Structures are given as structure tokens and as C-alpha cells.
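Have a close read of this protein, sequence plus C-alpha cells, and explain what the C-alpha cells say about the fold. Thanks in advance:
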Amino acid sequence: MAETIVTAGTVLTGAESLRDGAVLIRDSQIVSVGALEEVRQDAAGDAQTLRYPRSTLLPGLIDAHVRMVLGSGTSPYQDFNRLDLSSDRQQEAYLAGPMAQRAEQTLAAGVTTVRDVGDSRNLSIRLGREIAEGRIAGPRVVAAGPPLTTPGGDGAFLGGAVHGDDSIRAAIFAHAEAGAKLICYHDSGGFLKLTPLTPPFSWQVLFRPEQVELIVNEAHRHGLPVAAHVFSKDGIAHAVAAGVDTIEQAYWTVGKEQYDRDESVARVMAERGIFACLPSNTNRAHQIDRVGEERAIEIWYSRFTWLDELGVKLIPGSSAGSVTSDFGDIVGSLETYAWLGFSPARIIELATRNAAAALGLDKVTGYLASGYSADLLVVDGNPLEDLQALRRVQLVMAAGRIPPALNTRRK
């Protein structure tokens, strides 16, 4: 069995900070964590040692909101819709080409797990299998399959449109059979459309409350958590009442650039442990330029701190695979939290421990501890003092594997 010791000037385990600590990895798992000399006692004599004395070792980051089938730029939805993926050969080429590149780019940025909320043709599910079996370098992929929506609704071009109760049941069964790890549904208009300025708009719900309840009950019956992709106030209320596991976006829209947050619903989210995934991206700069920083915070970004103060558990996401959101820029999304006053320690916690719990992986990843997957990140400097250190990646290990581009071994 292959063994590796990784040692760094600072080790952030997720529970404590160690000076001159080390982690012993055996194949894909962490064996022990602690002082270097103690860890060496648990290792075989031929274990290789990777030393980073001026760096910080921490758990690999988790990006909780991506769409690996889509690109970035100004027209990712239209670009994808123009692709011909009708044959197995074309799908395999797309999987091995653009999707594999996005996976490698994401991993190289220090992300060792992603939650994919916008699949098409089950390509992200298939990508996750390729990565797990070592044929493609990339992060662990927790994929939802095509998001459930209504015909012509938000995200319908991805292929998850349903019409009526029987169609909902059939779609969730098909997702489970295909290997989806969660169900995502879109219950309000949004911007994941080929013509974004047309209905349904972000304040218009797509499913009746009893249909939302059916989605949640059917998904849970198959052992799958549910992510509700909702912008509208009514959609959020329906999702919380139905018992979803996470709410994506949560803008509380009631009209065009009109918002009405419901504190009573948010408090129920906190009581029931419903996570809020508030993806952020480079669109933040555009909104600030458009309406000014104070107004941008008031309209959109103050919901981060508002939900946090009410006790709702937050998880970050890059929204990679949507307009202006690039793969490999998880730090760009985390900067929103820093801009709003979250400390670096808290931000790292959100992107590791909190996110792992939201994905049901808190016994697998998000910590550096014995028995956990060897998902780790080494960065130059200390991100507790400067979050930008997370951009200076020196080593990434996902399930014990180091991608070739970052195989900078130091003995």
C-alpha cells in the first residue's frame, strides 16, 4: 500500500490548528494527523514525505453549486444548446474534452468536491464515475442529474422538464436509477434560460405547493436529498414547508427588483437545519457598477448576513457553469463573504465542514482526521491571515490522488 506524509508549517484540521503538523495518507484515506514525529511512527519505512514548511495544509474545498456540463462566458446556455450530443460518441467526446478540462481546472484551484445542480443527459453523473475510477483527474462529483422544471421553465433546455405528478415520479425514479446523489428542482423563474428576459420571471413559481411536496417525498423515499433552486418568496415558502434539504439562491423576489424577506420562514429553515446555498461570482462587480455598492448590498447581498444572524446554515458555491462564472475560481465566490465581513476562519469553515455536512459527507470529507478521505490542499501562506493565500495552490490531493499538473513532490 502506498503511503505519503504531507507536512506543513500550519495544519488546519477543521477542528484545530497545528504548528509543524503532518498528515499520513495510505492509498485514498487519512491514517493519522498530528505532530510530524508522531505521524511518522504510524507510517511504513518507505513512506514518501512532502514538505511545505512555509505553507498551510487544510481540507480540500467544497464548491456546492456548479454545472459541469455548461461553460462560462456571456452565453453558456446558448452555447450548450447549439451542441449536437445526440450520439454516444459525441457525448463521450464532450465528457473527455470540455467537461474533463473543467474538472481538472476545478481541482487545480483546490476544490476536491463539487455538488453539481445542473446536469444534462446524466453527463455529470458519468463524469463523477470517471473521476472516482481514476480515468479523469477531478474533484468528487455529487451530481443531481437534470434539474426538474416545468416545460419551458427555468433550466428546461437541460432536459429535466416534467408535466404532472406521474411525470415527477418517473423522473425521480430515473434519476435514482442513473446514480444521482440528490434531486434539484427549479420552482421559480430565474436566469437559466435561452432567452433570459422572457417569462417565467424570478418571482413566478413553477410548481404548485403539493407538487413541491411530491418532489420532496419521492426524492426522500429514494434516499436522495433535495435542493430547491428558488428565487421567489413564495417558492422559498413552499420549499421550506415541504422539507427540502437545501435552498439555492434564496433571493425572496416578489417582482422586478422587488424583495420581501420572510423572517418566519427563515427561522423555520434554521430550526429544521435547511441549508442556504448562496452562490456568488464575478457578477458581483457588475451589480456594484450598475447600482452602487450600498444599493447592491441592500438588494442582494445583505441576505447573506441576515440569514446567518437568524441561524440559517450557509454554504458557498461558485455558480461555475453560468453567465460570467468561471471554473477554478472558488476564491472569487468566497471573497463575497469576506466583503460582507465574514472572517477567513469562518469562510474556510463554510467551504469545508459546513458544505460537507450539507452534502451528507461530513463523515467522509471536510476534515483532516483518521478515516476520512485524503482530500487536502496546501497553499502558500496562511489563509487565516490572508484569504488570498487560497489562490496560491501548491498541492491538491483528492481521494489520495495528486493531479499530474500539481505533482510537485518534495522529499
Q: What stands out?
A: The first strand starts at residue 3 and ends at 12. The chain has twelve helices and 15 strands. The first helix runs from residue 36 to 41.
